[in-house]
TrEMBL record:
This is Beta-glucosidase. Its EC number is 3.2.1.21. Substrate binds at Q23, H123, N167, Y295, W390, E397, W398. It comes from the Bacteria.
């Protein structure tokens, strides 16, 4: 059970659960094209146990049961993503009608169950043919992505409650092109710098395309991390400021101030695309809402041996999830308040929050603490309008494969049987109790 009550969030607050296409759908049939995660996972050493999304949770076939679970949990909304390669298998050009038909059924299924569809256009499954052309390193991706966005808006725009362009641009750019942990697995500063700009430029370009098709209630989902120094030393403070710059300020400053942070630009200048400044009005296109994903904090220490960003992340003293991420609800309050004071007065949604853990009692406590953190942020003036638990189902946790379980519903990958966990029941108890 949670200690918080639904009524404390006000009558219009949206509670939902979140998932992403590659992590749950499976269903690599009916004309779906391949994506960068298919090949990344097929390359030895990239993903634990070489797991891939070939079957995942078989949501492609089991979606009615999954939507029933969301409805029966008492949730108001469902945050899902559409797979670009399912809709446009080559990334550009011919549209796959079977792909459109799937999302048609899925979205209607949400509406029939009284669930508000919160769509995300890109949650990391870039069509492979676009990677062959440079993917996020190629400025042309803005046009490819805008064309795909327009197809989605034309077919579903009138039925979507809200649409986000990109999930977690830091992951799309930095994690995938500088740290090499996610597909396409680059470890290259020029690749990363280009992706860091193009992902936001493509976002802004897609917003214009969505609006041109009449789509409403548009935003983007940034993942934010509380960055704190490992000690009081000025050097560690500098390290945490730098990490905050690459993780948080690059995206927030770009999107909501129309200018990238000078300290990070100074370090990336030789690698950024020439003339990027001229794109900033597109990057900072006005939005209707802002999504924030939050999981943890990072503790940073100065590390002179690391070029460009002389820092390293050190293990902190707090309780952790089973991936070693510290549990720090205050970070969620602080970030929501910071975004609302320093960046934007747009309605804010916590579009993801949750815990990788096999001990579900810990997950219940995690959710309870973070829901309280949202209430605290609201008390401090942040206009938070909704909260989405990550995730509805245990699913494909990217480079961790299926070893990490974030679901409030357990999935037996042998049988695909879904079993609600205590954390699901805790949400259900809170959401059905209108106090
Ligand atoms: O599973 C991911 C999700 O795809 C994006 N946000 C973070 C989650 C947990 O790592």
């Amino acid at each position: 059970m949670f200690s918080v009550e639904r009524g404390q969030f006000g009558p219009n607050f949206v509670f939902g659960t979140a998932t992403a296409a590659y992590q749950i759908e499976g269903g690599q049939i009916d004309g779906r094209g391949t994506c960068i995660w298919d090949t990344f996972a097929a390359t030895p050493g990239n993903v634990k146990n070489a797991d891939d999304g070939h079957e995942a949770d078989d949501h492609y076939h089991r979606w009615p049961e999954d939507l029933d679970l969301i409805r029966d949990g008492g949730f108001d909304g469902y945050r899902f993503s559409l797979a670009w390669p399912r809709i446009i298998p080559e990334g550009t050009g011919a549209i796959n009608q079977a792909g459109l038909d799937f999302y048609d059924r899925l979205i209607d299924g949400m509406l029939e169950r009284g669930l508000k569809p919160f769509a995300t256009l890109y949650h990391w499954d870039l069509p492979s043919p676009l990677q062959d052309r440079g993917g996020w390193m190629n400025r042309d991706i803005a046009g490819w992505f805008a064309d795909y966005a327009a197809v989605v808006a034309r077919n579903f725009g009138d039925r979507l409650h809200a649409t986000a362009t990109i999930n977690e641009p830091w992951c799309v750019a930095f994690l995938s092109h500088f740290l090499g942990i996610h597909a396409p697995g680059y470890r290259d500063i020029r690749a990363a710098s280009r992706a860091m700009h193009h992902v936001l430029f493509a976002h802004g370009t897609a917003i214009a395309a969505l609006r041109a098709e009449g789509a409403k209630n548009l935003g983007i989902v940034t993942n934010l991390q509380k960055c704190e120094p490992a000690s009081d030393s000025p050097a560690d403070l500098e390290a945490s400021t730098l990490m905050d710059g690459t993780f948080n300020r690059w995206y927030l400053d770009g999107l909501y101030k129309g200018k990238y942070p000078a300290d990070i630009v100074a370090r990336l200048e030789p690698y950024l695309p020439a003339g990027f400044e001229a794109d900033m009005p597109v990057v900072s296109t006005p939005l209707d809402w802002a999504g924030i994903n939050y999981y943890s904090r990072s503790l940073l220490a100065y590390d002179a041996a690391t070029p460009v960003f002389p820092l390293k992340q050190v293990a902190g003293p707090l309780d952790k999830n089973d991936l070693g991420w510290e549990i720090y609800p205050k970070g969620l309050t602080d970030l929501l308040v910071r975004v609302s004071r320093e960046y934007t007065k747009l309605p804010l949604y916590v579009t993801e929050n949750g815990m990788s853990e096999t001990n579900d009692e810990k997950r219940v406590a995690y959710y309870d603490m973070h829901l309280k953190a949202v209430l605290e942020a609201r008390a401090q003036g942040a206009d938070v309008r909704g909260y989405f638990a990550w995730s509805l189902l245990d699913n494909y946790e990217w480079a961790e494969g299926y070893s990490s379980r974030f679901g409030i519903v357990h999935v037996d990958y042998e049988t695909q049987k879904r079993t609600p966990k205590g954390s699901y029941r805790a949400f259900q108890g809170m959401l059905h109790n209108t106090k």
